[in-house]
């Protein structure tokens, strides 16, 4: 297990909360839970790409001392966002069986668990292989 994994998972949990609260503020009408899960997963990946979280993550995956050694290059960002949205629906559905009534706790736990799951099953390594390139 990587040394930063728990810290990263906590950060992602709070990032999911931020996205959820933003959606709650921007959309004044109730939406289907599965649509909400998809939107949060999609935006988590897309916003992370836009603001540079994924570029930083490329460097953290290599436990590099130089946090400016790698950068993100994704030709499939929309596809990746859709996949993350679908993964959020799947795991969000499974998490519903735990019966968490507080949506803030629900989205924090969902982001936290998905981050650890992705690391454990090698999804983060695949992300690094296909999306992180060394800077010149």
Main β sheet profile: 2 strands, antiparallel
Q: Strand portion, in percent?
A: under 5%
Q: Please report the number of helical segments.
A: 6
Rg result: 15 Å
Shape: globular
User: What share of residues is helical?
Assistant: over 70%
Q: Could you walk me through the main structural features you see in this protein, from its secondary elements to its overall organization?
A:
By secondary structure, the protein is mainly α. The protein has one domain (5-134). Helix content is 71%, strand content 4%. The protein has helices spanning 5-26, 33-51, 53-61, 77-95, 103-120, 123-131; strands at residues 70-72, 132-134. Strands 1-2 form a two-stranded antiparallel ribbon. Helix 1 (5-26) packs across helix 2 (33-51). The longest helix is centred in the first third of the chain and has 22 residues, at 5-26. It is globular and about 45 Å long. The mean pLDDT is 86.
Topology:
Elements: H1 5-26, H2 33-51, H3 53-61, E1 70-72, H4 77-95, H5 103-120, H6 123-131, E2 132-134
Antiparallel strand pairs: 1-2
What are the defining features of this structure?
single chain; mainly alpha; two-stranded antiparallel sheet
What's a quick, concise take on this entry?
Helices cover 71% and strands 4% of the residues. The chain is mainly α and 136 residues long.
